[in-house]
Amino acid sequence: MTAEKTRPFAVACMVAAAAVLTDQFSKALALTALADGRRVPIFGDAFGLQLAFNPGAVLGTGSGMTWVLTLVGVAAVAGLFVMAARARTVGWAAGLGLFLGGAVGNLIDRFMSPPGFAIGHVTDFLAYGDLFIGNLADILLAAGAIAVAAMLMLRQRATSGTKVAPATPPTFDVPPEAKQ
């Protein structure tokens, strides 16, 4: 890897590592502080802390297919890692690092949490009213997706702005009888 490519990849790895460490630390804290099952309101009923274990994906979908979600997670992490290695800018790398960190954070739960290897339940503790309970990895995934989407929009805007052909002066055909 050239120095030009090493810097963005290093940024992606550092962002992902910080994201994973923060996510796993927050989950360990939640396991300790919220073990009694109570809900701790932060903003009334709108947001609070409550420990939950999710065998599925978003909003509990796919609960009976945890091992499939683990395989999808492994594939996603591999793909994100390759994309991070190919990132050309620090902005892309940071966005991919957030995405990668969130994916790895939840994948660690799939491998290490009960009920067993590759079928573990994801530790959730951020309760959004009665809608759902998530975790920091979910927020990192969303932040990464937003960052990547923003980079795509900026790139689209930049490329569409530079592809405008310069204006050419109009030409007029003179009829042959007028040339005499």
What does this structure look like?
It is a single chain. This protein has a four-stranded antiparallel sheet with strand order 1-2-3-4. It is elongated, with a radius of gyration of 25 Å. The model has no long low-confidence stretch (mean pLDDT 89). The chain has four helices and four strands. With 180 residues, it is α+β, with helices and mostly antiparallel strands. A hairpin with a 3-residue loop joins β1 (40-43) and β2. The N and C termini lie far apart (69 Å).
Give the topology, please.
Layout: H1 3-33, E1 40-43, E2 47-54, H2 66-86, H3 90-112, E3 122-128, E4 132-134, H4 136-162
Antiparallel strand pairs: 1-2, 2-3, 3-4
Helix pairs in contact: 1-3, 2-3, 3-4
**Averaged pLDDT, please?**
89
> Fraction of residues in helices?
55-70%
Q: Summarize the helix and strand pattern as letters.
A: HEEHHEEH
Q: Roughly how many Å apart are the termini?
A: 69 Å
Q: Reading side by side through the largest sheet, how are the strands ordered?
A: 1-2-3-4
Report strand %.
Answer: 5-15%
Count, helices: 4
**What's the alpha carbon Rg, rounded to whole Å?**
25 Å
Structural class: alpha+beta
Got a strand count? 4
Short note summarizing the structure:
This protein has 180 residues and is α+β, with helices and mostly antiparallel strands.
